Amino acid sequence: MNPVDAEAAALALAAGYLDAIRAGSLDDPGVTRASYGEGERLAHRLAREAAESLGLEVAVDPIGTLSMTLPGEDRALPAGIIGSHADSVPHGGNFDGAAGVAMGLAVAARLRHLDRRLARDLTVLAIRAEEMVWFPANYLGSRAAFGLLPPAAPDTLRRSDSGRTLAEHMAEEGFDPDFIRQGRASLHPARIAWFLEPHIEQGPLLVEAGVPAGIVTGIRGSLRHRNCRAIGQDAHAGGAPRRHRRDAVIAASRLVAGLDAFWTAEEAAGTDLVCTIGEFFTDPTRHAPTRVPGEVRFTLDIRSAEPAALLRAEAWLAGAAASALARQRVEIDYGPALHVPPAAMDAGLRAALAAAAAEAGIPTLQIASGGGHDCVTFAGQGVPSAMLFIRNEGGSHNPDEAMAMADFAAAFRIAAGAVERFG
């Protein structure tokens, strides 16, 4: 097959895969592919069927990781891996994660149609359970494949919609939770030469810049507190003067305003930082318009590609809590902290992506990833890792995701050229 026809066939396969998984997981107003559930099962089955139609070697590990391999010239060499996850958030968009699986299949299809082999095996990976909304664990599927989950995880993690354990859902899908309990691994860093995760951008920067693809410089780490409380004392709205009040709303509001000022100063100094208060509420069964609120609950999500910035944010939060106690006599209890370190992308792989883009005449943007991805797990295991973002209208984790196939095609040309450069 000539190169033009090979590319067209590869892109048609990817588009057909994305259309089919959307049709099979529609859940108005978007799609739902729950981790270890029906929609994810469908996406893996259709990926396997596409791989088998190309004659790829297909394997599934005991936790459901789907590997689809195009043999290389020297099978003793560590393999190159391209792929992403296939689950989604509830009523989400069709492309978050799945576009990376489709991209991997398209790259392998092009090589197959050109009857071309790389020096090493090329494995397309469909990873399980990346979306934390289903089970409260970051990068559950990729960490499980590397043997990084706690042995108790199958029996302590419960799915948000069913309340049933990870072990129960795995067994229902035909997989083996003992694989995790025993600390076993199916992915081994020494056997992986590189990892590339194509993914839609989850923000607006590529749309603003008017370019179809972005080369990710690094993945932001995070400092998260999901159960924050400002604890003061209830009082009568008319009878309690200011000096006697321990108003949790005012104290928490000062903290939020202070965090915004901290963020502004860090940003002005050139720091990569984003801060989010995703929830902020009083208990409506306890509080009323005529009552000074004695408690506020809220969440914190602070992200940066710079470890030092996360440390500064943590120190600022401690100071803000001390100030609230001294000024309003309100205790700030942040609850447990979830720390995720930043992940730097491999300079050599980034250079290969840039060279492939230049050769194809496709403009790109160097961009940090604000969202977390399975690529963090690979990079954390010492695997040279890279991400390629695809322009996406409408944001992510919502039914308005709108990746144009023309942009997917542009990113495909970059990925295909880079994979051959990776070796």
From TrEMBL:
Its cofactor is Mn(2+). The keyword Zinc-finger does not apply. One of its GO terms (molecular function) is hydrolase activity. It is an enzyme of class 3 (hydrolase). InterPro entries: Amidase_Cbmase, Bact_exopeptidase_dim_dom, Peptidase_M20. Its EC number is 3.5.-.-. Keywords: Hydrolase, Manganese, Metal-binding. The keyword Hydrolase applies. Pfam families: Peptidase_M20. Belongs to the peptidase M20 family. PANTHER family: ALLANTOATE DEIMINASE-RELATED. Homodimer. This is Hydantoinase/carbamoylase family amidase. It comes from Falsiroseomonas selenitidurans.
